[in-house]
Amino acid sequence: MTAPGRRSSTFTRLLRHGFTDPSAAERLLEGPELAPIRADPVLLEALGATADPDLALLGLVRLVEAQDGDAARRELLDTLIAAKPLRDRLLGVLGASEALGDHLARHPGDWRALVTYEAQDLHPGVAEFEAGLAGADDPVALRVAYRRCLLSIAARDVCGTTDLAQTAAELADLATATLRAAFAIARAAAPDDAALCRLAVIAMGKTGGHELNYVSDVDVIFVAEAAEGTDGADEAKAVQAATRLASHLMRICSETTVEGSIWPVDANLRPEGRNGPLVRTLSSHLAYYQRWAKTWEFQALLKARPVAGDLALGEEYVATLAPLVWQAAERDNFVADVQKMRRRVVENIPAAEIERELKLGPGGLRDVEFAVQLLQLVHGRADTSLRSGTTLDALKALAAGGYVGRADAVQLDDAYRFLRSMEHRIQLFRLRRTHLVPEDEADLRRIGRSLGLRVDPVKELNREWKRHASVVRRLHEKLFYRPLLDAVAQLAPGETRLSPGAARERLVALGYADPAAALRHLEALASGVSRKAAIQRTLLPVLLGWFADSADPDAGLLNFRKVSDALGKTPWYLRLLRDEGAAAENLARVLSAGRLAPDLLLRAPEAVALLGDGESGGLEPRDRAHLEQEILAAVRRADGGEQAVTAARGVRRRELFRTAATDIIASYGTEETPVIADQGALVDLVGGAVSDLTAATLAGTLRAVVRDGWGDTLPTRFAVIGMGRFGGHELGYGSDADVLFVHEPREGVDEHEASKAANAVVSEMRRLLQIPSADPPLLIDADLRPEGKSGPLVRTLKSYEAYYRRWSLVWESQALLRAEVVAGDADLGGRFIELIDPLRYPAEGLGEEAVREIRRLKARMESERMPRGADPTLHTKLGRGGLSDVEWTVQLIQLRHGWAEPGLRTTRTREALAAARAAGLLSTEDAATLDEAWVLATRVRNAVMLVRGRAGDTFPSDGRELAAVGRYLGYGPGHVGDMLDDYRRTTRRARAVVDELFYGA
Question: 404: which of 344, 762, 808, 902 lies 20 to 30 Å off by Cα?
């Protein structure tokens, strides 16, 4: 007896051998069942080597209890102690699988299946499993025999006799033997049906791929023909008979009996899925796949393998459909379809489970399988060595053929084996179909120990799992979305030479819509023996991956060819791309993001130097002072006004490109520079840069016109006042410049002469800025002047004063909220601002009648100016919750409270909105809602201009252009619908705030 309070030596030994409940284990060991072997040291040692010693011991006691008589118990215990192979196998299974422990307790003689240790027993095939199932002529007997065979597979697995691939193959072979046995039972039950037809069972999925799990649906497709010797015309009867046989086969395997079920037989991969007939003839299958099948259905056929029934018919089925499988990669949207299918799988995982999802989650088994299958479908057309249904075999073949880097393949193989082994151990415990990593620590401990992690099983298991999942996630991105993204140094030598066949396959895999044209561009760029071609061959594999990461890879490659043709002979161009890390990726992003930036670059390709990180590079937009200084210096050097303004427009084009490139790279992100999270800051950067650039261009043009016509001094002082988005520092890429012109005759100058000079200046400025050239025109819009288009283009300061004192309307006060001096005589401009301040910030605010008038104007504009047929929920300017809604709301607050709140006296929408929130004129939540909508609508307008090369106020209708807008806004491929939904949701919330704050709802 052990003294009270002291632990027995057995208790201590049990702890040392890995038992978690040594007290319960001690009681079991002291029971009568194990009395003959209790003292034998090999028992504890063997139990301690199992995944769960407590579970193994309990299972052993139950098995001994279940033996029929003392002789059977003695035989079991004697063999257990004497035969180490049996001891390791039996206890290994009992410690890993509660379900197989239950089976042994119900069928206590089945332990003998683990005794034999012959060579053929180590790696059985279909024939051996068929022998093991022989005599099982009803569903219950079949289940018992199946579990007995499963017992031997699990024993070899947990003892390490077989590796992951061999275990998965054995499980698939057992499934094959089981389907054959079930088919024999079904035929015996309906001999008349069996006589009418030939029925073949085609294994799909993991069964077809020879890589089955312990518990999985067994995916099948049935194909039938009329039996030989019957009337071939009576095909319908043959199909009906085959359908009855197939249905019975499925029930035999799937239905629950006193011995449970085997596994569900799933025929949903058949043509038309569960809505289609269960059985079809071969010609019917062929007709469906030729005409109706979707891309994923051909992907599924990669694993098709005849396993039961009429094997000759099954082989004919596979041979008939194989050519269609290997043509699938030529289908329209092939890559997009495969990618979409993978995303849909991920999106359907419940959020609470995604972090524990071993199969379907990011970095899971399905990522490996999809990536391998995509590359098989792409390259297997020409390379038959890749046509394996087994994932690991296919991965090995892809590495051997150079389609996947060898180092990548080794890492992916290791990760896949670990994750599948984890999945096997999870399923083996209760023989339940699951892919979720358990949360219970005891479960994690058992899984970790079963995988050989013994020091700290839970911690080590989680670490290894996350490490392998991370590897899969990283390599899946590279293999599946961007197969050529690795630097050339890590690719096989042949791949850098871009052979025409391999290049075309890669282009299709990367999502190029016109691989033939793309291949011509590649040949033009990379063929030959010149140093230029050699550098291009080094660059192209990497660039192709970056182009593929955009919405329009074809345009990216075409634009790259154009830039390379233009700059090919300049020594610095290719050196820049090769040697300056950021330049190549920046260029790839810019060239494939739409039309505007490439158009600007191609008009002066030397601007590509801005994309580098050397002395001539730098994407930070320049401030107005520097821009004005450069433009005015160019004007001074020019001969005549036209040459001067051409120089100014050249600077504008270069700086527009710099701003567009900054915007694109910040929106897309690069491998070195993450996407800018603050979209509002990006909007402010673009708006400020384009507005400063426009102001500097106008200043240079004014100087050129005055110098050309009047020498150093114009007879009248002259100032340009920015209005609208220009005055608000919010210009987009395609915006006109809204302005007012004001002048004041110099002392002694006749007013008529001064006015004539001022009008001449305006006319000449507008003419010079719109002369057709390689540079984008700058349109000057003066429609916000007094009396609009009916009024004079230029007025004196006194004329403005008289007009505003006598005739000014409330909409003009609202328009003047954005007025800011942008060019010309600063003193005159300053006095104009002093003149209009009382109008735009009226003392004591707006009267109620003026507020009603503004609301009437806004309502009329909403109803009259919306383009016919436009979707009001997607129109960025005039639509619900768009720019106009937000700006009129902010401007009404400025008109009512600007006299009392200095912070509201700004021309910038977002600044005014922030000031209104700070002054308590609207809630923080409402201000954030309006700001978010305004920023989003502005981003959409900028995106449309970048993508289409022309301004637009609504989303493009063209699918590829819409996808490009989505990529700019941060939406991945296939998420255009999410983008539109998010836009509608954001602007709908903004409109609710507008209704309350502006309309007083």
Answer: 344
Alpha-carbon span 51 to 948, nearest angstrom: 62
CA dihedral 440, 445, 448, 452 (to 10 degrees): -170
Query: What pLDDT was estimated at residue 528?
Result: 67
CA distances for 464 relative to 414, 416, 451, 474, 475, angstroms: 11, 12, 11, 15, 16
Which residue type sits at 439? Answer: E
Q: Provide the total of helices (H) and of strands (E) in the chain, helices listed first.
A: 45, 10
Question: 276: helix, coil or strand?
Answer: coil
Closest CA to 608 of 644, 645, 647, 575: 575
Those residues whose C-beta lies under 8 Å from the C-beta of residue 691, and which sit 6 or more positions away, are 722, 725, 726, 728, 729, 730, 731
Sequence-distant (6+) residues with CB within 8 A of 84 are 42
User: Could you tell me if 939 and 666 are in contact, meaning their C-beta atoms sit under 8 angstroms apart?
Assistant: no
Residue 345 banded pLDDT, cuts 50, 70, 90: confident
* Of 86, 91, 85, 87, residue with least CA distance to 54: 91
Distance between CA 39 and CA 29 in Å, rounded? Answer: 9
The CA-atom distances, in angstroms, between 565 and each of 236, 526, 528, 552, 883 are 65, 12, 15, 20, 42
Task: Determine which of 253-262, 562-571, 754-763, 913-922 has the lowest per-residue pLDDT on average.
Answer: 562-571
Dihedrals φ, ψ of 593, to 5°?
-95, -5
Q: Which of 459, 453, 460, 419 is nearest to 436 (CA)?
A: 419
DSSP 552: -
User: For residues 695-717, b (16+ Cβ closer than 10 Å) or e, as one string?
Assistant: bbbbbbbbbbbbbbeeeeebbbb
Q: Are 739 and 767 in contact (CB under 8 A)?
A: no
- What gap in Å lies between CA 890 and CA 687, rounded to an integer? 18
Q: Based on the number of CB atoms within 10 Å of its own CB, is 151 exposed (0-12), middle (13-18) or buried (19 or more)?
A: buried
Query: Phi and psi of 876, rounded to 5°?
Result: -70, -30
Region of poorest pLDDT, from 158-172, 375-389, 527-541, 969-983: 527-541
Confidence grade of residue 233 (pLDDT, cut at 50, 70, 90): low
pLDDT band at 487 (very low <50, low <70, confident <90, very high): very low
Handedness of CA 31, 35, 40, 46 (dihedral sign): negative
Measure the CA–CA gap between 441 and 153, rounded to whole angstroms.
Answer: 27
Q: Return the structure tokens found at 90.
A: 């039996």
The angle that helices 531-548 and 571-579 make with each other, rounded to 10 degrees, is 50
Which of the pair, 383 or 667, is modelled with greater confidence? Answer: 667
Q: Two tokens at 531? A: 């140093």
Window from 339-353, 485-499, 624-638, 827-841 with minimum mean pLDDT: 485-499
Q: What values do phi and psi take at 227, rounded to 5? A: -65, 150
Are 598 and 555 spatial neighbours (Cβ–Cβ below 8 Å)? yes
Tokens found for residue 287: 């007709």
Task: Name residue 7's beta-bridge partners.
Answer: none
Burial of 916 (0-12, 13-18, 19+ CB in 10 A): buried
Residue keyed to tokens 């002054």: 919
Give DSSP secondary structure letters for 355-386: GGBSSSSTTSHHHHHHHHHHHHHHHTTT-GGG
721 sits in which H/E element: strand 716-722
CA–CA separation, 286 and 283 (whole Å): 5
pLDDT exceeding 90 applies to what percent of the chain?
A: 68
8 A C-beta contact, residue 344 and residue 350: no
Rounded-to-integer distance, Cα 939 and Cα 943, Å? 6
Which residues, 6 or more positions from 7, have their beta carbon under 8 angstroms from its beta carbon?
A: none
pLDDT in tens, 597-636: 999 998 888 888 888 865 555 788 899 999 999 999 999 9
| Look-up of token digits 């070195």 | 672
User: Which 3 state secondary structure label does DSSP give 667?
Assistant: helix
- Dist CA 307 CA 693 (whole Å): 72
